[in-house]
Amino acid sequence: MAIEQIRMVLIIALCVVSFLLWDAWQRDYGPKPPPPAPVEQPAPDAAPSDSAPPSVDVPQAPQAVQPAKTATAPSEDKADDLAHGRKIRVTTDVLSVQIDTLGGTIAGADLLSYPVSNDKPNEPFQLLDDTNPGTYFTAQSGLTGPRSAPNHHARYQSEADAYELTEGTDFIDVVLRWMSPDGVEVTRTYRFARNHYVIEVGVEVVNRSDSSWHGALYGQFQRGEPESSGGLFRTYTYTGGILSGPEKPYEKIDFSDMASQDVDRDVVGGWVAMIQHYFAAAWVPGSEETNHYYSKSLPNGRFAIGVVSPVATVPAGGADEFSFSFYVGPKIQQRMQDVAPHLERTVDYGWLWLIAEPLFWLLSWIHGFVGNWGWAIIILTCLIKLAFFQLSATSYKSMARMRKLQPRITTLRERYAADKQRMNQAMMELYRQEKINPLGGCLPILVQIPVFIALYWVLLESVELRQASFIGWLDDLSLHDPYFVLPVLMGVTMLIQQKLNPTPPDPMQAKIMMALPFVFTFFFLFFPSGLVLYWFVNNVLSIIQQWVITKKIVGQT
Description:
2 domains; single chain; nine-stranded antiparallel sheet; 12 helices; elongated; Beta-galactosidase, Chain A, domain 5; about 25% strand; alpha+beta
């Protein structure tokens, strides 16, 4: 392959990598296409229409115990599909949760340690919300079976309207009760623990009827697809469902998947989650049981995704218990690892997660010493640069030698301007005599690209960087620089690097290379400032190393 062609291939490769970064950012952080128009639904306090009976969003028990006709909620609850019951407020040191007595639904969840923004430090971020149709997101659960199974449309009774985890108390229990006319009593208990984002949901069934009771516990999320808003650089990440099992530890089930085909599968253990940027909610059933996972596209423009436990049989006069764990909170990997296998994968590092996870561990370890995420990024950048020091030195030496040969290369191009083949042969002979690898300046850089991309995902996905301040005007490393200082400085460092590199003999290639700093600056204007900080520091260290090597070999700056 001719030298000009090799260079052009490498330039194209660099541009492709840049585009892939940009495209990935746009897919996860750019504007979403508008969702399909939702089907008109009744007002929240209206009775459901005939086309949307209450049972449409209630999962069926596994087929083994289904009666001839599909079971529905008790008739007394049929008018309450979109209604609300009494809200019970539960406050711990990290959560403020609302439990609706209609169905025992977790209708609201505020994360007390995570403000909406730095400008509103006293307003906690609300992850679950059943009050706004545009952000509707609830965690529903209940029992499903042939008879006397209170699903999330049943009305429960509670002894109190508010619970609070007080000093000196490690946990509190919220108890809801339901009784059927034929003597089946259901007691639902929510256990909240100090400094925990996990709510243990236990359900006890006491059968005082004269026949056996069959049923299963389910937990599901009901949510509408978020609407697109904002301009070209509006930051959104993946919002949608996740399923996990032994065969597929992390599988995205987005809203378009739910709209096109229902999920219907049995999995040993596993979990189901609904995630968004930085935060997640997950239902975790028994790890040794074969659980049934499902999804539904609902006629009200929302979607349901959840899990049903194995069916239990409670004989007349007997009792049995069901339990699920429910996680609602930030995507903190160490906490999620303790809840369920692979739940930490909701921090989505993409296909380079094997590289990204050690980088995040190292970044967190550094932060433990310096106490500031900005300085931790700078130190991590220095360590990565040190790890690739020899590889970078090889690259810069090759480029310095190429720069030293620039006058002779120009002479050869002028001499053989009419004969491209002869010119390439002469240039290859010159490289052989001077013991220079024309690819030596590019290949070491390409080897480092996976590390750069992995760190890109680490800095974008880590909730620890949310609202993390650095210096001066940089009060949130997860947001773009409000004054664009860092992106401009990064662009300047790229221009300096271009000046240190040998100028491509081909004028078109030279123009493309000189345009790259401006293109990257534009790309990075609205990138999180933590990522731009990394790139800027890396460029500064590269300039210092390249300047020293170039001065030594070429004899000039």
